[in-house]
Write a structure and sequence with these properties.
By secondary structure, this protein is α/β, with parallel strands linked by helices. It is built from 12 helices and 13 strands. The protein is 30% helix and 17% strand. Strands 1, 2, 3, 4, 7, 8, 9, 10, 11, 12 and 13 form an 11-stranded mixed beta sheet that branches. Strands 5-6 form a two-stranded antiparallel ribbon.
Length: 356
Amino acid sequence: MDFVSNLCLPLFEIKLLMKNPAVIKRRKFLASSLRAAGALALTGVPGCQAKSKSGNSLSRINRSRVVCAQNDLVRDNNHKLKSAEVGKLLDRAMENLLEVNSATEAWQQVFSKDDIVGIKINCLAGRGLSTNYELIEAIIEGLSSAGVAERNIIIWDRGNRDLLKAGYQIQTDRNKLKCYGTDQVGYSSSLYEFGEVGSFLSNILVEQCTAIINVPVLKDHGICGVTNALKNFFGAIHNPNKYHVNRGDPFIADVNGLSEMRDKTRITISDVLTSQCEGGPPFMPQWAWSFNGLLVGFDPVALDMVGWDIIEKKRKEMRLPTLKEVNREPTYIATAADKSHQLGCNDLGKIEVVRL
């Protein structure tokens, strides 16, 4: 159920909500802010080249740990997502990622009350396969528990049109939770360069935020093979159309090597509640399925490796050829792990996957 329909609930659903304080809390928080108008053998040179951030309070955590949390209870009998259950799933993932006893403690280790947080979502595919608002609700509640005021949170993507198409509402009031696209505020005046990439970056990323939560949707990509953590930042540059040649390699890795992406991204929470193994990036329901899960971690390369593994397993189940066999192997993931980029670990043997 998207947040637009949440505000117009029929009586029987209201009665159900009254019995669930967790749902009430989440609904009230958001209604006040936005009102409607087994690993496969994946190829590529493995490596774990992620740069460590010395002095970070999270240094004790294995940076390449990926939590894969799944629970079919996130959907009701009508296949609709349940906000409370999605929230519980994220809570468990955060606790296991940070190895703490409460989700609040986990959020407080990653964010402070002084942060201005941009939640970079993916709305390209419309309602069928965009970042689900039930997950965004849970993330906002987590940030709130860390002391981040709702006026210091921006939900964003490339354009207002894509956000609206995915069921979000544009909100620019400076004293409220905000939601808008880069086309609302424009791109940086300076060109950012790394490797073979030269791009102007979203002013939301450059000027307005101190921290980013990357919230991609895991799915097949008709050119690059897989889109997840790394490729989601193509929605933060002015010229992504230039960088799809050679399956996005090395361009996707280079975009993530840009200082603003590397330095401001605190955590990635991949939406795998619904995923798609063929025909992406647009929504193709015949290839989509309810994975009912999340991938959560600090290492975007490790997250993409685990996501790629999920896609390949589903392709095998549906009797589709491997991405390598159809010349769409996402080689950019290995590039992101090399010595020139050092963005993370692409060796599945060294990635600690915690399955819930």
